[in-house]
Amino acid sequence: MIDTIFIGMSGLSSYSRGLKVISNNVTNLNTPGFKSSQLQFADLFYQGSQQGLGEGRTGHGVGTFGTNLNFKTGDIRSTGNELDLAVDGQGFFVLKDAKDKLIYTKAGQFDFNADGVLVSRNGGERVMALAEGGRLDEIRLDGKRTNPPQASTKLVLSGNLNPSSTTYTMENVGVFDSAGQQHQLKLTFTKEANNTSDPITWTVVATEGSATVASGSFKIKDLKPMAGADTIDLKFTPAGAVPSTAVLTLGPDVRGDVLGATSSLSISQKDGFASGSLIKRTFDADGKLVLTYSNGQTDKPFQLALAEVSDTRELVQEGANQFLIKNQNALSYHIAGNGKDRIIGGSVEVSNVDLSQEFSDLILNQRGYQASSQMVSTANEMIQQLFDMKGHR
Q: Where in the numbering of this chain does the Flagellar hook protein FlgE/F/G-like D1 domain appear (predicted)?
């Protein structure tokens, strides 16, 4: 009967641990990236004859091993925060703490700190990108807060240059120099006098205010731009900046038809832009950082590193939704895309706790604890009866 008390106590102890695991799961129901765990129960050693003779083999209660983590992907929940990220797949975000220790997490709640480094909002660990050669790098905004200007190199015209008219004017043709300054040009087309047969020559003068920027001529032959006579160079020499040239071109869509009373040219292609400041930071589905600037340009300088673990039993919970790995051979790095993983911006992966399963396990643990308690009480009563029998002898 003394053994029965010890067996019952092993049940009380084990079911108490089980209740602790369940309570931890349930309380982390809304914790982003949390992975639920389950306590493993096992019967204790046996004594007695292996052949089942005499008393036979009797057990000594129940014990517990460690907990098994459930790495099933949790639901993806939208947050509206552009730097909240979720991994649609088995990959883990890679973080590095202040001691340069690598940590792995599913909780993608990130932000840029005062130094322009992408960090975890929870603990300030740096978020890693995967660079060339498999190198892990920090994601920093150094040198990325502004976008340098680019001089215009081409302006391509489309439309109709009607030979029945003698002049045509295009106003407010924007061209950027190498300093990022925009020049608003006026293009004046004048058909060469008495030019009624192929090729038809048009003199073009580009002016900015009262100053002439460039002049030249275009030729139209067989109703189409004539090769070798379809471009004019627009040169700019801004103070303190590199000179630049933008080529004004009659595109393949330009015609010289007699359609209507006037010409109808427009700019179909052009490049160049002013300098821009950073206005938006997001991540795309491949985990690339997308920087958007006020001049309409974008840049993708970094791509998130994702960790893949071949055996999740090598992961150790560290708290704060983070994991360490025991065996580096079970770890490899990759990037999202190519059908492997997908990054969902403005969202987080929530806890994978199944509340209905936890409540079912809670009832079983509660009943197990009650039964173990009843066994201890019964054995105690039986021992008390023995004491009473001896006392009345």
A: 86-123
Segments making up each domain of the chain, as ranges: 2-72+352-391, 85-146+279-348, 154-270
CA distance 147 to 184: 22
Helix (H, G, I), strand (E, B) or coil at 228: coil
SS3 200: strand
Domain range 154-270, its CATH number among 3.30.540.10, 3.40.50.2000, 3.40.50.1220, 2.60.98.20: 2.60.98.20
First to last CA, the chain: 21
45-54, 117-126, 377-386: least confidently modelled range = 45-54
Q: Please spell the DSSP secondary structure of 53-112, one letter per residue.
A: -TT--EE--EEEEEEEE--PPPPEEE---TTEEEEESS-EEEEE-TT--EEEES-EEEEE
pTM listed for this prediction = 0.79
Alpha-carbon span 40 to 313, nearest angstrom:
14
CA–CA separation, 24 vs 10, rounded Å?
A: 21
Q: What is the pLDDT of residues 348-385, one digit of tens each?
A: 999 999 999 999 989 998 898 888 888 878 877 787 77
> How far, in Å, CA of 18 to CA of 21, rounded?
5
For position 56, what pLDDT does the model report?
Answer: 60
Whole-number Å distance between alpha carbons of 269 and 363: 71
